[in-house]
Specification:
The chain is α/β, with parallel strands linked by helices. It has 15 helices and nine strands. Helix 2 runs antiparallel to helix 11 and helix 5 packs across helix 15. It binds (2S)-2-hydroxybutanedioic acid. (2S)-2-hydroxybutanedioic acid binds next to loops. The site of (2S)-2-hydroxybutanedioic acid has 9 residues, from loops. This is C4-dicarboxylate ABC transporter.
Length: 328
């Protein structure tokens, strides 16, 4: 048994990353928390790895560790500052300890879709955000898209009152905590890798996430259903450490930057479709998806939007205004 277990463990780890770099190649470890296929981030990370390992062969070698196999999002940024991992793409909700600027992305109903998020990020303000943490040792390289968030719970959620009194897992973000409190629900910050178990055992009643995460983590299997609220977004920052990035030879840094740029453009254009396919896969697997009437959706907006005022000082009234202009 011991031998078989070792072999199994070996097979799993060989599958989850590139499986061996050559002598003399600089190793670039990329740690993330989602599944690698049928997921906007997972697919993008795999494509990045493939291209780096082909086009930078002999110079650099990338290993991708998906599914929180190396670090979860609570640990990865500290590990990056220690030099133990070189790239990650945590959701923008996971940078609270480093910047409050990203809170705009967590505010409910701030962006009407991922195109609006993209337009905001492409603006001068959005681009400057990538460098907002450099004093703290972190450098943002590119924004990667996931998509719109939906609510799920162990009972039907049609009106905001249905969420009252329920425990919801949230990412560790003060905005998301305030959002759930505005619904009269009880927010429970928790690492992504623990959510399925917490839903299954009833430690929490519900959660919010994108179709690709609800499908990839099988949350729908341990929930009554998913309500199509599109009430917020999950987006990512591909991040590295300032020290590591500056230590690279100019040609290596430039080639890596170019490949990352191209992968970003290619995969961000597909993020909406990847989520639509995940939604379809949930339905095909027998998952329940509930649509809201326009009146019911407005009730969710009315219940959650008041949290904007609480965070206006952190994110800037002018940025909220800019985001709303994009939505028009
Ligand atoms: C979550 O924690 O729910 C997400 O940020 C996970 C992810 O990386 O998409």
């Amino acid at each position: 048994t011991a031998v078989a277990m070792t072999l199994t463990a070996g097979a799993v780890s060989a599958e989850s990353h590139s499986g061996g770099c050559d002598d003399g190649e600089m190793v670039i470890k990329f740690s993330h928390v989602t599944n690698s296929d049928r997921h906007p981030k997972g697919i993008a990370a795999s494509l990045l790895m493939e291209r780096v390992n082909t086009e930078m062969d002999g110079k650099a070698c990338m290993e991708v560790f998906p599914n929180s196999t190396l670090y979860n999002d609570d640990q990865v940024l500290e590990a990056m500052l220690q030099g133990d991992v070189q790239l990650a793409a945590p959701s923008l909700s996971k940078f609270e300890a480093f910047t409050k600027q990203f809170r705009i992305f967590d505010l409910p109903f701030m962006f009407k879709n991922v195109d609006a998020v993209d337009a905001f990020q492409t603006s001068e303000t959005g681009q400057a955000m990538k460098e907002s943490m450099s004093r703290r040792g972190l450098l943002g390289l590119e924004f990667w898209h996931n998509g719109m968030k939906q609510f799920s719970a162990n009972k039907a959620l049609n009106k905001p009152e249905d969420a009252k009194g329920l425990k919801f897992r949230v990412q560790p973000s003060d905005v998301l905590v305030a959002q759930m409190e505005a619904l009269g629900a009880s927010p429970q910050p928790m690492a992504f890798s623990e959510v399925y178990g917490a839903l299954q055992t009833g430690v929490v009643d519900g959660q919010e996430n994108t179709w690709s995460n609800i499908y990839g983590q099988k949350f729908f299997e341990v929930q009554d259903g998913v309500t199509e609220t599109n009430h917020g977004i999950i987006d990512y920052l591909v991040v590295t450490s300032v020290d590591w990035f500056e230590s690279l030879d100019d040609d290596v840094r430039e080639q890596l930057t170019t490949i990352l740029r191209e992968v970003t453009e290619t995969r961000n254009a597909e993020s909406f479709n990847v989520n639509e396919e995940a939604k379809k896969a949930i339905l095909d697997a027998g998952g329940v998806v509930r649509e809201l009437s326009p009146e019911d959706r407005q009730a969710w907006v009315d219940a959650m939007k008041p949290v904007w005022s609480k965070f206006e000082g952190d994110v800037g009234a002018e940025n909220i205004e800019a985001a709303q202009k994009i939505n028009e």
